[in-house]
Recover the amino acids of this structure.
């Protein structure tokens, strides 16, 4: 029977209930009630979609002509026809992005200007007219860069002194030198010189000019810079500094340079016996390197000699705990004793004592270690679940079931696992809260919201997200709900999701689990034998539905593909996959699903292992599969990488809820997705 006609479905459903009442037949009654629930879900979804579609069309119809004009004029600017675009700027009067277009024009003017300081008045006027501090700050930064390029340092200083101007530390220092405003290597210059991670293109020139003009460098900054360069592997640059040291200190630094690649010999050398902050910083670095080569030896040395470097007993204790946790993550047999010897003040030690007991399935030890948590930690759903799990394994089923029952009301990973233990239904609320028409209309009248929506509709999502977030800084739950409905209606899934995440609402599934690019995902997933719910589980966890997001590690797009991975998947598909193309959502999804297919096949279709491999890489996951088969929940909790552990839990939860939505309330339980973990065949 088709479920596409909600009115017909309701008619049939209520006829069914009427017949059940008349016959007083229990089985018929249960069937009809279930059918009514299903119809209700479908009817509400259909009504909601109609409302959402109408709202989306209304928003898109606003400024439709000016939006097209903006895109045309923007193309003129990109094509180098700046003057023609500027001559037509008045056609955008009243359009929410008119100020942004003026900003784009001014950017072009600045890039060609022979006298950037002369444009300060225009930059300030644009800020005053459109009240846009961010664009104003960017333009001031461009003016500074233009002055540097033209070697106009007096102009630079005038621009840098303007209110809201960004700081460009190395250029700012060079300007002080060029304008003869610095007479000594002061604290600010010393701090910058000693922090190579902050350096930009003009830093070397700035420091060279500063040292030449002032004659010397502060001793503290010299030591700090030397250590910072050693830590980043730049030994040659440290050698360049040797001439600034006294003969005695030069010998120490030379020994650092010569032994930095032999951490055991260096840390035991005379050159490391000082107790200055610079010695201690280098000691920590050398110990980490030694621990990668020989963890047990490094740990023993640290216990015996840590305080001799000027570290406190508390500092020594912290690092002893860190070594014990590292041993546990590596699965070393000595880890249990190391954890027990470490201080319980270290949270990682407390947690890994429990995880080691779980890994060994020593349930009595697990209970004892759980008792050593803080009062606040004992309240968390994760440790409550493991307490119940351990008690059940030890035969205390009554106590275990009591905890499971309390956890089972939560709609999260551990709540679902607890419900699975008792065979209880998941407490997923099918109702989607709705804002009123008045609440939505009021929000749409907010100029910042209108501006954000236009940024999204002209495909400048990163600007739109900033404007959107700024507009909703102090928004109430009701306002965030209205914002989520507005965003969802135009297909701005990441802002709908982000808005509801900021509220106390937990049942807004259409906002929390949207399904962008449904047809593409369905078709591509089917072709690659990947469940579409799994795809959406990954998308939600990886990117929060933001199509152009880039991680600190370099992963890009909805499914957060690393450029190297995308290149490999592109070869399999016979397409070129440059990194810049990964923000194309359709392209990203095709490659991402191809990679999901690869890791699923590599791990015998085990969703748990595939999710872990998608995040941490297949090679690492193979290393994490130790010895005999483990229950999947135990294996997940003992994943060595904190990020991957939380990631796998999130993907499994997301997949379960997404699948529930696709099946209109039918359920594949979380534990059915979690077979025992063993080496792939």
């Amino acid at each position: 029977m088709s479920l596409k006609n909600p009115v017909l479905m309701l008619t049939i459903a209520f006829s069914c209930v009427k017949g059940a009442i008349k016959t007083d037949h229990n089985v018929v009654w249960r069937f009809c009630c279930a059918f009514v629930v299903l119809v209700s879900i479908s009817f509400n979804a259909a009504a909601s979609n109609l409302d959402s579609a109408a709202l989306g069309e209304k928003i898109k119809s606003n400024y439709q002509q000016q939006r097209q004009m903006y895109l045309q004029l923007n193309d003129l600017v990109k094509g180098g026809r700046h003057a023609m675009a500027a001559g037509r700027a008045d056609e955008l009067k009243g359009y929410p992005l008119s100020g942004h277009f003026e900003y784009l024009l001014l950017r072009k003017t600045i890039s060609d200007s022979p006298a950037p300081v002369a444009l300060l008045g225009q930059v300030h006027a644009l800020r005053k007219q459109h009240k846009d501090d961010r664009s104003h700050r960017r333009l001031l930064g461009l003016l500074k860069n233009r002055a540097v390029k033209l070697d106009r340092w007096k102009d630079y200083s005038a621009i840098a002194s303007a209110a809201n101007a960004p700081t460009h530390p190395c250029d700012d220092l060079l300007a002080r030198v060029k304008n003869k405003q610095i007479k000594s290597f002061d604290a600010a210059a010393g701090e910058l010189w000693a922090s190579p991670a902050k350096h930009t293109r003009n830093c070397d020139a700035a420091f060279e000019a500063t040292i030449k003009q002032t004659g010397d460098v502060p001793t503290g900054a010299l030591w700090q810079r030397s250590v910072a360069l050693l830590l980043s592997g730049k030994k040659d640059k440290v050698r360049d500094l040797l001439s600034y040291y006294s003969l005695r200190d030069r010998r120490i630094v030379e020994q650092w340079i010569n032994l930095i690649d032999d951490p055991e010999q260096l840390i035991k050398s005379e050159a490391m016996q000082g107790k200055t902050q610079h010695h201690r910083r280098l000691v920590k670095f050398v110990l980490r390197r030694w621990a990668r080569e020989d963890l047990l030896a490094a740990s023993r040395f640290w216990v015996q000699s840590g305080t001799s470097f000027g570290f406190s007993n508390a500092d020594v204790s912290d690092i002893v705990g860190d070594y014990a946790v590292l041993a546990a993550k590596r699965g070393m047999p000595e880890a249990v004793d190391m954890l027990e010897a470490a201080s319980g003040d270290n949270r990682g030690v407390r947690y890994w004592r429990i995880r080691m007991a779980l890994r060994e399935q020593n349930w009595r030890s697990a209970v004892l270690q759980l008792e050593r948590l803080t009062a606040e930690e004992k309240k968390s759903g994760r440790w409550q679940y493991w307490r119940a799990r351990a008690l059940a394994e030890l035969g205390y089923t009554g106590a275990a079931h009591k905890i499971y029952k309390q956890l089972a009301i939560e709609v999260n990973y551990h709540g679902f696992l607890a419900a699975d233990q008792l065979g209880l239904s998941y407490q997923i609320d099918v109702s989607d809260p709705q804002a009123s028409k008045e609440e939505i209309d009021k929000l749409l009248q907010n100029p910042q919201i209108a501006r954000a929506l236009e940024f999204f509709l002209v495909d400048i999502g990163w600007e739109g997200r900033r404007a959107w977030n700024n507009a909703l800084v102090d928004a109430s739950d009701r306002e965030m709900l209205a914002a989520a409905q507005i965003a969802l209606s135009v297909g701005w899934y990441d802002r709908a999701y982000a808005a509801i995440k900021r509220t106390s609402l937990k049942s807004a599934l259409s906002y929390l689990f949207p399904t962008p690019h449904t047809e593409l995902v369905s078709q591509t997933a089917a072709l690659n034998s990947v469940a579409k719910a799994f795809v959406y589980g990954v998308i939600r966890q990886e990117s929060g539905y933001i199509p152009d997001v880039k991680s600190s590690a370099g992963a890009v797009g909805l499914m957060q593909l690393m450029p190297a991975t995308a290149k490999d998947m592109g070869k399999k598909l016979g397409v070129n996959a440059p990194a810049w193309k990964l923000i194309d959502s359709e392209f990203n999804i095709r490659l991402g699903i191809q990679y999901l297919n690869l890791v699923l096949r590599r791990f015998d279709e085990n969703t748990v292992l595939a999710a872990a491999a998608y995040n941490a890489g297949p090679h690492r996951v193979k290393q994490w599969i130790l010895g005999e088969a483990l229950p999947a929940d135990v294996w997940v909790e003992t994943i060595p990488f904190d990020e991957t552990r939380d990631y796998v839990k999130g993907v499994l939860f997301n997949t379960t809820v997404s699948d529930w939505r696709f099946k209109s309330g039918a359920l594949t339980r979380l534990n059915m997705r979690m077979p025992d973990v063993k080496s792939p065949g």
In short: The longest helix spans residues 26-61. The domain at 449-506 is CATH 1.10.1240 (Methyltransferase, Methionine Synthase (B12-binding Domains); Chain A, domain 1). The CA atoms of residues 526 and 532 lie 8 Å apart.
